[in-house]
Amino acid sequence: MNKTGALIISHGSPQPEWVEAVNAAAGEVRIKEHMPVAVSFLGNVEGASIQHGIDALESEGVTDILAVMLFVSEGSTHIDEIEYALGMKDAPDRETDLEPFAIRARMHVGRPMGDDPDVARMVWDKVSPASVNPEREVILLVGHGSIHDGFRQRWEAGASALTKRVGATSGLLCDYALLNPDNVRAKAEEWIGKGRRVLIAPLFLSTGYFLQTVIPRKLEGLDYGYTGEALLPHPLLPVWIERQVEELLARVDAEA
Known about the structure:
Order of helices and strands: EHEHEHEHEHEHEHEH
Low-confidence stretches: none
Number of domains: 2
CATH topology of the largest domain: Rossmann fold
Strand content: 15-25%
Helix content: 25-40%
Shape: elongated
Radius of gyration: 19 Å
Number of helices: 8
Strand order of the largest sheet: 2-1-3-4
Oligomer: single chain
Distance between the termini: 11 Å
CATH class of the largest domain: Alpha Beta
């Protein structure tokens, strides 16, 4: 008899507040009755590794694991290495130290958050308190990006698509910039030069070094709107996780 379980995979952080935010979001997820759920992290969280999550689900008799990738972008190198370690590809696109996990169950892997409409709403909800004159403003989405060829293009494609979603959601002009390669200040100065007040919307799940230090440092001396808030916590994240599980479950049923 087949039994499904959900494995929520995130990056992890040495900041306990961030881990608590992910666990809190997972705790609000309402999915199929009696489906086991495990929250796991790529690193920095003792006793909650991806292997720990796999083992926990398999110990409950799970035969099909639905892996929810709680990452912002397809361009993350972590997506690539995790997919490899989960057995979804024969080799990673970029060299990794991550070893293949020990898995007995069948693995079904979802996609990261990308340009999902709920993600666009989350971005707007977080940046909107900084808006004072929408007709003269532009939202500048700021993502981590990548220096690696192939991954950078995935980041750009995803950020461009999400920019359109946020524009439709907010009714404001929207653009995006990436920390890698570094064009955040240039983009902000370009819009300021056009007479627009720039609202900075960080595409990060957690607060911390990038939001508190890196982004403000890049924009030092400029006049811009910024709440400094990450995407978490937000009530729509559990909703997004629920839909991911439902889509993966439908895939399992179709393959049965």
